[in-house]
Amino acid sequence: MKKLILPFLLIAALSGCKPDEDNIPQGAYESGVFISNEGPFGTGTGTVSFYNRTTGEVSNNIFEVVNNRPLGNIVNSIEVHNNKAYIVVNNAAKVEVVNVADFVSTGVIENLGTPRFFLGVDEHKGYITDWASGIKVIDLHNNTVSATIATGGQGPEQMKLIGSEVFVANSGGYDKDSTVAVINTATNAVTATFTPGHNPKALTLDANGKLWILCNGILDWVNPANDTPGKLVRVNPATKAIELSLTFGSASNHPAGLVTNEAKTKLYYTLNGGVYEVDINTTTLPSSALINRSFYNIGIDPETDYLFGTDAKDFVQNGYVFRYSLSGSLVDSFHVGVIPGNFYFN
Amino acid sequence: MSGLSKISLSFISIIDSFCVFFCRIIFSVALCIFCTCPAFAQKINPDSVYKLPEAKVNETRLNDFSTGLCIIKIDRKKIEASHLLNLAELISENSGIFLKTYGQGSLATISIRGTGPAHTGLFWNGININPPNLGLSDLALIPATLISGAEIQLGSSASLYGSGVIGGAVHLNSQPDFKKAVNISVSGLTGSFGLYEGSGSGVFSNKKWYSRVAGYYRECENNFPYSNTAKFGSPVEKLVSADYFSYGGTAEIHRLFKRNYSVALHAWHTYTHRNLPPSMTSSDNGEQQSDSSFRFLLEAKKLFAKSTLKTKVAWLNEYLRYENQTADVHEKVNTQGIISEAEFATQVFKKAKLNIGINYTYYYADIVQYSTAKTRNQAAAFFSFLYPFTKINWKATINLRQELVEGYTVPFTPSLGIEGKVWKSISAKANFSRSYRVPTMNDRFWVPGGNPDLKPEGGWNAEAGIFTSFNDSTKLFAPNFSVTGFSSLIDNWILWQPLATNNNIWTPVNLQKVWARGFESNAGLRFKQRTIETCINTFYSYTLSTIVETSDALQASIDKQLIYLPQHNLNTSINFKWKSIFFSYIQTYTGKRYTTSDNAASISAFTIGNAVLNYDLKLNKVGIGFGFRVNNIWNTAYQTLAYRPMPGRNFNISLTFKFQKQ
User: Fold this and answer.
1) ipTM for the assembly
2) Which of B313, B494, B631, B656 has its CA 20 to 30 A from that of A175?
3) Residue A196 touches chain B, beta carbons under 8 Å
4) For B175-215, how does the pLDDT look when each residue is reduced to its tens digit (9 = 90+)?
């Protein structure tokens, strides 16, 4: 998907942008890494940082710099689709839409409940997971909600578009869940539901076209006897059959943040203060970490195959992004905003 | 990742309450000022410094044994003249102390001398009424109408009052006066943004009885306009979902019996329902909260020739409901406390005074987020000794206190205070003390995250200052000055942090060591010209409260100012009194406050001007008072918390009927 977008971006860049008024070079943000920073809880604003791969420069708070207003409380994620960046602002119940090249605001999608992630389905339609209602179907021409899909589960979180179907992880939200729902994008109807494990959170596709699902497991603070461990599950997206289900060793193991390398041959996730690497042909889970460091979230830049890990520090100061090679060695680090939570590699 | 978001809405209030992040400060005054300047009564009157301590009905540990500490007094007259609505506003205007507030009528918390909101005790006739689940109080919930006065004591007095009194304490004490009198007051107030209040109070007393009853009802639409800087073009919008209503009453009755026995019963009830408005950067989540408080206190005293025996028992109940429609959160919090205390004060060595006492406290908390209802037992023994060096006009006090708290090892807390005359009207004082704070019941039992392994926070506090006291009210020209420097080291400061193994779960940890230091200064002048009496006062405080030790990962916050804590506070007031007319203008400056712990982001300093004009007509036993108040005269757009708007210029008018018979 990311690769499909690149030609569009080139066209956008070649066709030229608006004259620059704020000393922001044309297409300043067209190629690089966006980091969404949630911002301080309670009463702050989140931000978006931009990392320029070529120069290594980091521009923080780019939305406010360009648009002269803050994004809003708890910026959960950012996604690029059709030359537009969709910035999901969870506690403001909205998604801000900007031109990806210059970050100038072009619209806002409002009247959402607790939005989490955006997915571009095609040039007309987008999906936004919303813990309050399921999935909001967005008309991308006028940035309005055209329909709501009940996913049949709690806390719909990450989505993956595979062919004409969207897979949605019902992560549990405020409660708990164990299901992944499948939606036909033509009809917006849930056509199938399967049960990979407790609190499925992250989804990713591998080189063989298989869907991997990372389940967080259940953490019961009062009665640890009710805890269940996380699971890493491989699914055939065509048949929805669970082909492999790897359960983590201990009930206190609650992995997060599933991503793949550029070749999609290896999976990476975080667990108990480490980053683990697992081959897509594995039948067992690794016992030792690739990187011994605790990250708030991780991502992998398909351009460089570097792993990006965020450190939110005390959650009330500017965080860091650390870059690692996939051999596990630290490359460099840079300062971003408060609580860096998600990436988009453009 | 990103897990918190709305999940954590319920935590947010908690996290906030623990004041983890949002500390801020205060200011204050050192000692005070002229008695005639209504706001600041002098704690120590130099003439009484070396006076024999006498067993009086109204004596308190605060008054007798807080040698070397600063106390700001706000008396009933001042409260009535100010037309302010709640304790938060009263403190803010009468001390220059900065309170962090979520907006008009919304959650308002205090922090004194660079400490957090849970580091200030709130006492009602000597009983700590901070609820055990939070360890702090929302001062917007204490209506000005109901209280007889407030004393704000700056600096640690943990050796007198126990856990949590690190930055200071606010005391709400009744002021029984056994003389024949009837005093009835009925008042109506209306103001901008749909504010209405009706209140009344009555005092009935004679040589044996004193009783006071007070009640009020208040409502406010609170839909003030503000410029929404979080939106494109900063449009002017009206605040939504911020309306509230509140009612309550207090009653107290004191009886003096023969042979110097006395008994008193106090009762308090307040109820407040508030819709909680979104911040500029959030959507309206349909949040609302109601708070109900019941407090009863029974006191019995026996006065002997040179000593006093006092016993008291209190029952406290706080009931809170919180709703968040978006997140479908429905919280219920029900806490109860039974606090009992006995103390014996006596004169020894002719002029010295000794006090010994014990306290037993039982807390119960039934909170949805605890696995089951929880309890906590605690007991304390305390000892105070005051020795006046009469020849040199100095006095010294030693206080010692040891608490036993179920589940914790708490330190022995001593303090030493001295004060006295240096030269003519110039006096000096100093105090050195140890303090601590036991983790709250939320810190221990909250699900998920509650941490039973927390250690109590512990502090060492020192302060010293000089003050002048030309409080002879017959003088036509009376200047005053005071300055106090303070320094506190607070270790094992508790902050809520996400678990390294699961970002969705926040847990309290003994994270850091904080050094709070600075000074408070105050200069005032009172002069009388024919029938016009003028009072000018200025308070300035400088507070540095920085993290001196923390985990390696948080190095960026080392030596940085705690968030939401202004370094500079300035409060200037000028009062004129001419016959029946009273006019007061108060201007406050609140310095920049950082919003991130690395001090990379901040919100702006602001200056606010308020004014009051009163006209009091007296006809024999009946009095009529007319009051007019303007808040934020210069229509300053400001925030005490980022993206929480505060109202622009607004007004209220009030009419009071009084009946007085002596």
Assistant:
1) 0.85
2) B494
3) no
4) 899 999 999 999 999 999 999 999 999 999 999 999 999 99
A44 at interface of B, judged by CB pairs closer than 8 A: yes
Residue A221 in contact with partner chain B when CB distance is under 8 A: yes
Q: Quick check: helix, strand or coil at residue B511?
A: strand
Given an 8 Å threshold on Cβ–Cβ distance, is A318 in contact with B600? yes
User: Chain A: nearest CA to B497, how far in angstroms?
Assistant: 7
Flag whether pLDDT at B20 surpasses 90.
Answer: no
Helix intervals (H) in B3-147: 9-17, 61-65, 76-82, 87-95
Chain B residues closer than 8 Å to A219 by CB: 448, 502, 505
Please write down the HEC assignment for all residues of chain A: CHHHHHHHHHHHHHCCCCCCCCCCCCCCCCCCEEEEECCCCCCCCCEEEEECCCCCCEECCHHHHHHCCCCCCCEEEEEEECCEEEEEEHHHCEEEEEECCCCCEEEEECCCCCEEEEEECCCCEEEEEECCCEEEEEECCCCEEEEEECCCCCCEEEEEEECCEEEEEECCCCCCCCCEEEEECCCCEEEEEECCCCCEEEEEECCCCCEEEEECCECCCCCHHHCECCEEEEEECCCCEEEEEEECCCCCCCCEEEEECCCCCEEEEEECCEEEEEECCCCCCCCCCCECCCCCCEEEECCCCEEEEEECCCCCCEEEEEEEECCCCEEEEEEEEECEEEEEEC
Chain A 231-270, residues with CB within 8 Å of chain B CB atoms: 252, 254, 256-257
Distance from CA of B365 to the nearest CA of A (A): 16
Predicted local confidence at residue B64, as pLDDT: 86
pLDDT confidence band for B24 (50 / 70 / 90): very low
Residues of B in Cβ contact (< 8 Å) with A43: 102, 279, 281-282, 641-644
* C-beta atoms of A315 and B498 within 8 A: yes
Q: pTM (2 decimals)?
A: 0.87
pLDDT of residue A13: 38
Answer whether A200 touches B (CB < 8 Å).
no
Q: Does any CB of chain B come closer than 8 Å to the CB of residue A165?
A: no
Q: What is the pLDDT of residues A181-200, one digit of tens each?
A: 999 999 999 999 999 999 99
User: CB contacts < 8 Å between A and B, how many?
Assistant: 158
Instruction: Give yes or no for a cis peptide into A156 (omega within 30° of 0).
Output: no
